[in-house]
């Protein structure tokens, strides 16, 4: 009976550790989803404001001021789009490529879709999943590696999203300044509003 206590305590500690790892993994997944939602929202906002140039680009007078504003807008809008694309699909090197830690990397991790797709048959996948579940240390290691990988992905995503927010603000500031200039420009010519678009 006394010998069973250490094993029960060890099993309890492993279960608690696995539970903690899974909670961290869930939190990292939520952060990843939020970053993607922010990127998509910024892309949508940028697209809505780009409609102005599609509709009114022929009415923009060509002078030094408008050329500078247009250049600022297009340069920063393009940089923002690139940053938002990198947010959705960040460039991350594999952990084993960076640290050389290949000994503990399973050939096919049965807990995630990338590893699951590498199994040739259902029976092979089921056997690997049963083996992983039986070994608590392996299970914890698989999920811990996933947490570490997601944390690195999230760090890259949020670095790109912070850069994209700044670039979008600069681009939209240049565009709104141009809009204000056009109203002042055409009002000075006697027009109350921008002239209508004609074919």
Brief summary of the model shown:
With 199 residues, the chain is an all-alpha fold.
Describe this structure in words.
With 199 residues, this protein is an all-alpha fold. The chain has one domain. Helices cover 77% and strands 0% of the residues. It is built from 6 helices and no strands. The longest helix is centred in the N-terminal third of the chain and has 53 residues, at 4-56. The model is unreliable at 94-100 (pLDDT under 50).
**Strand count, sense and closure of the main sheet?**
none
Overall mean pLDDT score? Answer: 77
Number of helices: 6
The coarse silhouette is: rod-shaped
**SSE string:** HHHHHH
How much strand content do the residues show? under 5%
Secondary structural class: mainly alpha
Stretches where pLDDT falls below 50 for ≥5 residues? Answer: 94-100
Domains (count): 1
């Amino acid at each position: 009976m006394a010998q069973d206590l250490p094993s029960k305590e060890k099993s309890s500690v492993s279960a608690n550790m696995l539970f903690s790892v899974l909670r961290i993994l869930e939190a990292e997944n939520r952060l990843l989803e939020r970053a993607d939602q922010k990127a998509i929202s910024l892309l949508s906002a940028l697209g809505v404001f780009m409609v102005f140039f599609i509709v009114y680009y022929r009415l923009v007078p060509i002078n030094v001021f408008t050329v500078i504003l247009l250049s600022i807008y297009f340069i920063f809008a393009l940089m923002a789009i690139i940053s938002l694309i990198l947010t959705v699909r960040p460039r991350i090197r594999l952990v084993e490529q960076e640290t050389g830690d290949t000994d503990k990397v399973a050939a096919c991790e049965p807990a995630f879709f990338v590893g699951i797709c590498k199994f040739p048959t259902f029976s092979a996948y089921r056997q690997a999943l049963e083996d992983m579940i039986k070994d608590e240390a392996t299970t914890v290691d698989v999920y811990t590696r996933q947490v570490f990988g997601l944390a690195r992905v999230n760090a890259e995503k949020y670095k790109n999203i912070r850069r994209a927010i700044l670039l979008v603000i600069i681009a939209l500031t240049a565009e709104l300044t141009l809009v204000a200039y056009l109203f002042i420009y055409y009002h000075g010519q006697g027009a109350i509003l921008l002239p209508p678009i004609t074919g």
